[in-house]
Design a protein that fits this description.
Strand order of the largest sheet: 7-6-11-10-9-8
CATH architecture of the largest domain: 4-Layer Sandwich
Number of domains: 5
GO molecular function: phosphatase activity
Structural class: alpha+beta
InterPro entries: Bact_Sigma-Reg, GAF, GAF-like_dom_sf, HATPase_C_sf, HATPase_dom, PAS, PAS-like_dom_sf, PAS_fold
Strand content: 25-35%
Domain PAS: 160-190
GO biological process, one term: regulation of DNA-templated transcription
Helix content: 25-40%
Number of helices: 20
CATH topology of the largest domain: Phosphatase 2c, domain 1
Keywords: Hydrolase
Largest sheet: 6 strands, antiparallel
């Protein structure tokens, strides 16, 4: 028999879902059906969502009361929308899908449910049976034998103690005198903390002084009596104002073993239908979350806030997780709030005023407009009342769960207890999922840093290092990145590189950053927020919008509101700066940014800090390498001769290849210079070893040859004096192989040469008939013996003849066990008949390079001189 009914219609807008929840809650509470309110609100929320959001029609909600049950019908105007049959649960789809989840909940929570069709409506209904106990009973315990009842010492005494705003006792009743042995005159005006023995709960730092400032509080502590003994008490605190508006706290105290007099019993939602006969099979976690539970942390947190919102009929809910050091809470899930703006935002646990100063305890704010900023997360959201509870695992704070409503005074201690009961159900599962995610992040971070280190160590090029730094951070760590470099202590930071995950945004971001003063180069480690780019982007977007509306200066050619707004969106989120510190000096800054209304996760910032340290060292190494290479190349260029002179009647060509990356000059050298009218000196040599010592001998040899030859000394005298100069270098000396000669072009087209070959590969002469022969005799090398007896050999190059001089890097070119050698070089030279000097040198070099696939391991120098033939 139906004893009461209530009906309402809700428009197809998102806000209707919350309104429908309120309607059902108010109706059932008015009927006294508080035991089934939570299940009814959850099911109504899902069914109305299906109607107004997914079906897109108005929803009619009808509540029917009978003597032992309540039936709720939800109708929409979309009968064509297919409903899965009850007999085919497999067709309902995943519980994480939006469609069909309400029907799964009906099957799980309702005693009975069904679907009715008419030509114009579709109706989904469910029935919840009432528990068999008197309506209006909030909590009750079973009858117990007398020996199991709590023992009291005489009559039960309730001490009433009032504390003023300074924490001092202002009232002390007779029961307090009996319990603790002090008369009122002995304690009035003294702080309660002088008498309280506060047992800190493991993992918390809240003390009695903190508890006295809360609007409501229940818990245990001790009071030292007049004999010095500690009496355990159970207390209920209520914060009030007197007639003058002064705050004070009323404390009701009983002996701890009599706590049932004051303690508010914890009450969870009624058990789901079908579980009363088998209570041991009910999983409290699954009762709240639903089955199957999401297997990922984000899904679990999102399901949690949705269930909490529905359970307390809220307009919004949020869940924050504590950082590793428990000093901050990070927003990880929310519903009914601007999630993009809030996700990964961080608020302190203890520091600052307001709600998060007591994050370790349940708290209720009946009207946030009275205490602005009490819950930083809700600033500017329109929420008026909020209840928050901690998530704890083994006494350690792991997070905070909150539900908020747009109306004031929606929540009281009753809702806080219910929400805390739910939080206790899920805390362990959330912490387990969080630790699993953290472990995956750390493993991924380790792999990321190893790969980053390998990439950064693989280059010593500054520009490539800058590019790698940016490419490793975007999009893995940030949406966009900028790198500032500092040349020296007196230089200003310079914007060296900009990268955005969308290439079309790079120019806009770079242009914006060039108009913003760079961040200050501080050595303090860690990421710090930099607001300048976001503010500049929003100002630029505002000016562009005003110009587009004709309210400002006309837009210049090439600019547009789309580009500016896109840039503002790209850099409008959180921007952080990490210093690049190497060798105790700031050499730059790494700037990471998010798009509008996004924040960085703490784990990402820690990973970015590790990367910045490695990148700074790599960038500084590239700088030092570049400076060293510039100095080295400048020195090496000074060892090369200036432009070779033109020798009348003789073609001259030189090819030089220094082994090693970045080398312009090695141990080999060459020279060709005028001595006097009609005479020219030439040389080709090889200094033993590499490095500064070899370079010093190279410079000494080249300049000494020129100086001594122009002083009129002949070839043997020049080399003997050079040998003495090398030996004078002492430990820095290096032995030297050298081919030195003097050249005199003749009027008949030939050329006369005088040559001294001191330990150097012999020069080869190519005749016009293709024959090749050595053109000198070997003599001792320089830099080994004091007394050298050298001699020169005179020869004539006829028209068409070629003289080829090489260093041992040519003849000792190897491929495995094979070596080119003197014979191989001679074979190549026989194919060069009729070629110019340049062509001869090029063919020799090409043959040497093709002889082996590996890069040359020794320097190579080729000097070719040819006397033109009569046919030329």
């Amino acid at each position: 028999m139906i004893t009461a009914r209530a009906a309402a219609t809700f428009e197809p807008v998102g806000r209707s879902v919350a309104t429908a929840r309120s309607f059902v809650r108010d109706t059932l509470q008015g009927w006294g059906f508080t035991d089934v309110v939570d299940d009814a609100v959850v099911l109504t929320s899902e069914l109305v969502t299906n109607a107004v959001v997914h079906a897109g029609t108005a929803a009619d909600v009808l509540c029917l009361r009978t003597e032992d049950a309540v039936r709720i019908e939800v109708s929409d105007r979309y009968p064509e929308r297919e409903i899965p049959l009850q007999s085919s649960p497999a067709t309902m789809g995943s519980p994480d899908r939006e469609g069909g989840r309400g029907l799964q909940l009906c099957a799980a929570l309702a005693t009975r449910w069904g679907v009715d069709y008419t030509p114009t409506h579709k109706q989904v209904w469910f029935q919840l049976d009432l528990p068999d106990r008197p309506v209006g009973t909030r909590a009750a315990g079973p009858q117990l034998p007398l020996d199991l009842l709590p023992v009291t010492d005489g009559r039960v005494r309730v001490a009433v103690v009032q504390i003023d705003r300074a924490g001092a006792i202002s009232a002390w009743n007779e029961d307090a005198e009996e319990l603790f042995g002090y008369v009122a005159e002995q304690v009035t005006g003294k702080p309660l903390t002088d008498f309280a023995a506060w047992p800190h709960t493991p993992g918390t730092s809240t003390g009695i002084a903190d508890a006295l400032r809360l609007s409501r509080w229940e818990g245990s502590y001790g009071i030292r009596d007049s004999g010095g003994r500690v009496t355990p008490v159970y207390a209920s605190h209520l914060r009030v104002r007197d007639t003058d508006g002064e705050p004070s706290t009323v404390c009701l105290l009983v002996r701890d073993d009599e706590r049932a007099v004051l303690q508010t019993p914890l009450r969870g939602p009624a058990p789901e239908p079908g579980t009363l006969s088998e209570p041991h099979t009910a999983d409290p976690f699954e009762i709240f979350i639903g089955s199957p539970a999401p297997d990922d942390l984000d899904g679990l947190l999102q399901r949690t806030v949705e269930r909490a919102r529905d359970m307390l009929d809220g307009d919004a809910a949020f869940l924050l997780l504590a950082t590793d050091d428990e000093t901050e809470l990070e927003v990880r899930a929310s519903t009914g709030l601007p999630s993009a703006r809030q996700r990964f935002a961080r608020v302190p646990v203890e520091a600052g005023p307001g709600r998060y100063g007591s994050a370790r305890m349940p708290a209720v704010h009946e009207d946030l407009t009275v205490v602005p900023g009490a819950v930083p997360l809700l600033n500017g959201t329109g929420m008026r009342s909020v209840v928050t509870v901690p998530l704890k695992v083994e006494g350690r704070l792991t997070g905070s769960l909150g539900v908020a409503a747009e109306a004031p005074e929606r929540y009281s201690n009753e809702e806080a207890l219910r929400l805390q009961f739910a939080a206790d159900r899920i805390a362990l599962a959330v912490e387990s999922a969080r630790l699993g995610e953290l472990e995956r992040l750390r493993r991924g971070s380790l792999s990321f840093l190893v790969e980053a280190s390998d990439l950064l160590a693989g280059t010593l090029d500054r520009d490539q290092t800058l590019a790698l730094m940016a490419q490793m951070t975007v999009p893995t760590l940030a949406t966009w990145c900028a790198v500032y470099t500092i040349a020296d202590q007196a230089s200003e930071p310079y914007l060296s590189y900009v990268l955005h995950e969308d290439e079309e945004r790079i120019d806009g971001v770079k242009a914006l950053l060039t108009k913003v003063d760079p961040p200050d180069p501080v050595t303090t480690p860690g990421a710090r927020v930099w607001a300048a780019p976001s503010e500049a982007a929003h100002q630029a977007a505002l000016r562009t919008s005003m110009r587009n509306l004709g309210l400002g200066e006309p837009m210049t050619v090439g600019t547009g509101i789309g580009t500016t707004l896109a840039t503002a969106s790209a850099v409008g989120g959180e921007t952080v700066v990490l210093p690049l510190v190497a060798r105790n000096r700031v050499i730059g800054m790494l700037v990471l940014g998010k798009p509008s209304d996004e924040h960085f996760r703490q784990e990402i910032l820690e990973l970015a800090e590790d990367l910045s340290r490695r990148a700074a060292l790599a960038l500084d190494n590239a700088r030092l390498y570049s400076e060293r290479m510039a100095i080295s190349q400048s020195l090496q260029r000074s060892l090369l001769p200036p432009e070779l002179p033109q020798v009348p009647g003789v073609e001259v060509e030189v090819i030089y290849r220094a082994a090693g990356e970045g080398n312009e000059v090695g141990g080999d050298f060459y020279d060709l210079f005028p001595i006097r009218d009609g005479a020219y000196g030439f040389a080709i040599g090889d200094v033993c070893g590499t490095g500064p010592e070899a370079a010093a001998v190279t410079g000494l040899a080249r300049h000494a040859l020129r100086l001594l030859a122009r002083e009129g000394f002949g070839g043997p005298a020049v080399l003997e004096r050079l040998n003495a100069a090398i030996l004078d270098e002492g430990a820095r000396s290096r032995f030297l192989t050298l081919l030195y000669g003097e050249l005199w072009p003749q009027e008949d087209g030939s050329a006369v040469l005088k040559v001294v070959c001191a330990g150097h590969p012999l020069p080869l002469r190519l005749r016009q008939d293709g024959t090749v022969e050595p053109y000198a005799e070997p003599q001792p090398l320089l830099g080994v013996m004091d007394d050298l007896e050298l001699y020169e050999q005179t020869m004539t190059l006829d028209p068409g003849d070629v003289l080829l001089c090489v260093t041992d890097g040519v003849t000792e070119r190897r491929e495995g066990t094979r070596m080119l050698g003197d014979d191989g070089l001679a074979d190549v030279l026989t194919t060069c008949t009729g070629l110019t000097a340049g062509a001869v040198a090029a063919r020799i070099m090409r043959a040497v390079e093709r002889f082996a696939t590996d890069a040359p391991s020794d320097d190579m120098a080729i000097l070719a001189m040819r006397v033109p033939g009569l046919e030329d």
